[in-house]
Amino acid sequence: MLAKQFIVVSSLLPLISAQETVLGVYIFHRHGDRTTKSYSPTSLTDLGYQQVWQSGDFYRARYVDSTATSPIHGIASNIVKNSQLSVEAPVDNVLQNSAAGFLQGLYPPVGATLGSQTLANGSSVEAPMNGFQLIPVNAVQSASTGANSENSAWLQGQSGCNNAIISSNNYFFSSEYMQKLNSTKSFYQSILPVINGTFTSATDTFKNAYTIYDFIHVSMIHNSSSSIPSDSLLTNETVYQLQTLADNHEFNLAYNSSEPIRAIAGSTLAAQILQQLNSTIVGKSASQVGIQFGAYASFLSFFGLAQLPAVSENFTGIVDYASSMTFELVTNSSVSNSSYPTADEISVRFLFSNGSAAANPLTAYPLFGQSSTVIPWTTFVSEMNKFAIGDQATWCSQCGNSTGVCATSTSTSTSSSPSATASGSSSSGGGGISKAVAGVIGAMVTLAVILGLEALIMLIAGLRLVSKKRLGGTGAAAVAPGAVKE
């Protein structure tokens, strides 16, 4: 009898699943493969272009296409409707170009039939490049150095947040850091023959764990083994240890549970996520898709704040090129032109793909220590507002800033102003983010590599980028067993 009941229930599961409607999404995306930070200017490679395009194509197949597996309610499937999209990237050629490449996959050229226009005189004009679609990418200007943030090895200062800078620097005085620095000296010295054209004996230490790893990682993707000095030293175990040490270094600089301000990147990102999803609900899916391109440090900061390391230690590692995390607004209530679900009928699902979603599973994970991967919108808002920083006064107060845009801001705010309310309406507190401060608190997307205190742009020598091809067995995804965190 139970077996028969199970069969009946199982047969209904597809129907139950089919009732779910995606009302909107927010996607935070890392750039694609790029050249090393050790030599400026850093630029997106052909491989990186391909990675982000493939990711865009994946999300098209999931959300946008007329045959999409999880279609977004009301989304234009062929010709883009720019009012439905909000796309942002910092003033940086790697991140801006990654966003553009992604959008080409999300809304590809539509051809001469759809990509043409008839003029008043009866003549027809076809869009260039087979109906290539133009989608604007809004630029987020950094508060300090601004353009080309991916060229910099030390970017916490670009967040403009004084207390976050101090907090990150505190790591270099911690016992944990000193233990790692001392215990890994011989390990780093053992690989000096590989990198001595760029690093010296003094800089070849755990203090520069990320730039060392980045230099070797990029070289192994793009250079033939014969052009890498002493390449025999780069065993699978050695490269795995280099990545593991870089992971540890960067996570500790991006997040600390006892010093939440260190995760300013995650806090500002959380507010932006709330604002976009809230606008989707308030506008009844008039603006359904928010996309932002940023750096891995923002992922790490958000992971820590959202308690994801408790789900998997992989959330403490540097995310791969073209990684993305997605927040889906979903409902099981009916949705039509005359009927839209209320806030208490809407839920949020968090998904993450380590690397381009086209090649790596987009997997749902529970947030905030919850047991379910789908949580009510009201719960999501409540939990996010515990650490989201979404207004100028709060940001200035939390960061301890009193100059620039903060000179005229109130410094009395002691808690984060909500970016959204549980009812799905715009918050009345805080006054929102002005365009003047957007460059400051929006600079979290330029917080790319939280490193030591020195920028490692050395004399041009040693390894060079000579090929666009991934070496067989030594690429980013094949460095060592377990090296790629998922």
UniProtKB/TrEMBL annotation:
Pfam families xref list: His_Phos_2
Biased composition, class Low complexity, residue ranges: 407-426
UniProt entry tagged with the keyword Membrane: yes
Chain ranges passing through the membrane: 436-461
Keywords: Membrane, Signal, Transmembrane, Transmembrane helix
GO molecular-function terms, A-Z: phosphatase activity
InterPro entries: His_Pase_clade-2, His_PPase_superfam, Histidine_acid_phosphatase
CDD domains: HP_HAP_like
Region (Disordered): 407-431
Annotated signal sequence range: 1-18
Organism domain of life: Eukaryota
Family label: Belongs to the histidine acid phosphatase family.
PANTHER family: ACID PHOSPHATASE-RELATED, PHOSPHOGLYCERATE MUTASE-LIKE PROTEIN
Protein's recorded name: Histidine acid phosphatase-like protein
Organism in which the protein naturally occurs: Mollisia scopiformis
